[in-house]
Amino acid sequence: MKKIGIILGLGFFLFWGSGPAQILNKSFAELNKNHSVTISGNSVTDVNYYNQNIWIATGGGLSRTGDNGARWFNFSAADGIGKGGVSAITFYGESVWISTAFDTLVPEGNLSAGGGLSYSGDFGETWHHIKQPGVTNVQNVTFDIAILDSVIWTASWGGGLKKSGDWGQTWVDSPPDTFFFDPLGRLNHRAFSVIAADSVLWVGTAGGINRSKDGGVTWENFDHQNQIKPVSGNFVVAIEQQKWRDKNIIWAATIEAEDQSEFRAVSFSEDDGETWNIVLAGEFPHNFAFDDSIVYVPTDNALFKSIDFGANWDEVTQIVDKTSGNLLFTHNFFSAAGAPGHILWVGTGDGLVRSDDGGTSWTIFRTFETLRDDNNVSETYAYPNPFSPFRHNQINDEGHVRFHYRVDQDGAVSVKVFDYNMVLVAEVEKELYRTGGAEYDAIWNAKNDFGEKVANGVYFYRVDLPGGKSVWGKVIVMD
User: Fold this and answer.
1) More exposed terminus of the chain, fewer Cβ within 10 Å: N or C?
2) What are the beta bridge partners of residue 111?
3) Which pLDDT score, from 0 to 100, does residue 10 have?
4) Residues 6+ apart with CB under 8 A from 290
């Protein structure tokens, strides 16, 4: 039930007791050892609603909330899950299963590696960790997990499609065809997505969509070349099932692989994969979410919404927090999930957002380092730092850096940026009223007050707070 935020290319280097615990009889409030007011990371690659909780996968770990985001419980390697960010989430009975991934330095360069699988049956109070399946974890990241009839299926790039019938103690290579496992030579053995839809297994690879109605014994392949109404492309990075009334639709994120006639789009089938309809041509979709008949598709450029099963689409490209007025500085929408009450959660490259009204208004959740009122902690900081206006927090072809500060009493706040010679460069905030007892971000686009991009170098900023107090910070601007 994951969907990956960054999709790798087709070329790659290939190196080669018991079931899950049952749920404990504990309330959400009792499990507070990892209680936080913020999520674990701002790059949110997967969002799921399960067992009255929202679970999110981030580059900083796993987070969940049971009270609409008022409190978060965060989990990392220190709590027993695998090393790195979370790359996939799924659920089975009362258990949550995840996989993790991290970067590792090898002679060929900095490559991705799988951190293994972990599962918990008690809301994350305890975790059971499983070593990454395969000969090596390098270039072997688990992008998706599905469980059908107590058999665990994992999809990974170098590791292909694997299954385990003994809760991860042993694994078997199970390519979705009749050929010997060879991910170097066969695109259909490079797996990226897998779901168990009712009793049917669906697997997305770099060679199309594969369907098995007998638990992986036999397979049928649907690709861009072998059907009259085919998928748009053979590189299938996400698959989901929508069931509503008499509808049973398989939605797939289908990207171009090697054939020049292929293209990126959303492909969906209402006849069990026999024919496919193409929508949102040219978009790079990452995930799907459903609210009864409504379909949401997060893509690289926008969040798309259809109320008529893909015939027409509305899009959201910019999100503003309805309370603070803060902007979401990204066009990259990675994941989405619907929750009871027609609540929509969306994971992005700049945080998590929630809408209670179908995408009209939003609440933004982001992680940040809280400023404490003591002599050992900085009173302000810039992030990211160093800052590249061409890479960080991009929106409308501009990058943005945040100056984080705390206000202890009500009043006006001004934020000014100076160069190394203490010459005023830009006034980011001018006598903006702020309520005391809270923390805020001032946003700078690395331009001076004339709209010109500033040169690389060190810049200082000053936050003028209510009561006559000023605090200083520093940011490095670099291409």
Assistant:
1) C
2) 104
3) 43
4) 240, 242, 244, 296, 338
- What is the per-residue DSSP string for 299-339? BSS-EEEESSTTSS-EEE---BBTTT-PBP--S-EEEEEEE
CATH of domain 380-477: 2.60.40.4070
pLDDT at 397 (0 to 100): 80
User: What is the pLDDT, as a whole number, of residue 34?
Assistant: 63
Distance CA 34, CA 40 (A): 10
- Average pLDDT per block of 10 residues along the chain, 479 residues long: 42 33 35 70 94 94 94 94 95 94 80 94 93 91 96 94 96 95 92 96 98 97 97 98 95 96 98 98 97 95 95 92 87 94 94 94 87 63 86 82 90 93 92 89 91 91 91 89
Task: Read off the DSSP letter of residue 168.
Answer: T
Tell me which DSSP letter residue 2 carries: -
List, edge to edge, every strand of the sheet that includes 200-205. 191-197, 200-205, 208-212, 220-222
Looking at residue 393, what DSSP letter applies?
Answer: S
Could you identify the residue written with the tokens 């504990």?
26
For residue 192, which amino acid is it?
F
Domain chopping of the chain, boundaries:
28-365, 380-477
Are 285 and 235 in contact, with CB atoms under 8 Å apart?
no
Closest CA to 13 of 183, 174, 259: 183
Superfamily of domain 28-365: YVTN repeat-like/Quinoprotein amine dehydrogenase (2.130.10.10)
Per the listing, tokens 């998928």 go with 231
Q: Name the burial class of residue 393, with classes exposed (0-12), middle (13-18) and buried (19+) by CB atoms within 10 angstroms of its CB.
A: buried
